[in-house]
Specification:
With 188 residues, the protein is mostly beta strands. Helix content is 0%, strand content 53%. It folds into three domains: 59 residues, SH3 type barrels; 61 residues, OB fold (Dihydrolipoamide Acetyltransferase, E2P); 58 residues, Beta Barrel (OB fold (Dihydrolipoamide Acetyltransferase, E2P)).
Length: 188
């Protein structure tokens, strides 16, 4: 059991039967009233985002979570299949639990958050930035570089990313998996 003084960013809390991750938190103090602790919470097992306020010192119910390294194998009817890098056990995870499934490629290392109470996977986190191959891109118009003009490019995972005009088919680019944006061109 913990209280509001133990809240930290990234902590997983159990509220009303659902699990939430702490995105941001703070404390409001006034001269006359007792201090209040507030937190912005993002649903782990649902797609809700909520704000919650407690009196300072109230009990909270953190859930112990373990992050394990898994490798993406393939996608089929049962979901996305991953292999534990230590035990070589395979698990199937549904698409809604994956941060950015459109950027998953075969053999990619991902972090899987596992609820230690139930041993169930809660979410899959891709690395913040990944390198992918551009498989299709329209040629850029020569001389159209005065502004930061972007064009659509298809990458090896099948996702479409907006890239600068100078990026061509067959090049490696780094993209941010959280925002889906182009970061830079990668030298071979």
């Amino acid at each position: 059991m913990a209280n509001t003084a133990d809240i930290s960013r990234g902590m997983i809390l159990k509220l009303d039967g659902s699990l939430y991750s702490v995105v941001e938190f703070g404390e409001n103090k006034t001269a006359r009233a007792a201090a209040k602790v507030w937190a912005k919470l993002k649903g782990v097992d649902n797609n809700r985002s909520i704000e919650k306020t407690w009196n300072s010192g109230d009990n909270i119910y953190p859930v112990r979570v373990e992050k394990k390294s898994f490798q993406f194998l393939y996608k089929d009817d049962s979901g996305y299949n991953f292999m534990d890098n230590e035990t070589f056990e395979q698990i199937a995870i549904q698409e809604q639990l994956i941060d950015a499934p459109q950027f998953l490629k075969d053999g990619q290392e991902v972090g899987v958050l596992i609820n230690t109470e139930t041993e169930q996977p809660m979410s899959v986190e891709l690395p913040d930035k990944i390198v992918v191959l551009v498989t299709y891109s329209e040629p850029g118009v020569k001389g159209d570089t005065a502004t930061r003009t972007l064009k659509a490019a298809t990458v090896e995972t099948g996702a479409t990313v907006m890239v600068p005009l100078f990026v061509e088919e067959g090049e490696l680019i780094r993209i941010n998996t959280k925002t889906g944006e182009y970061v830079e061109r990668v030298k071979n």
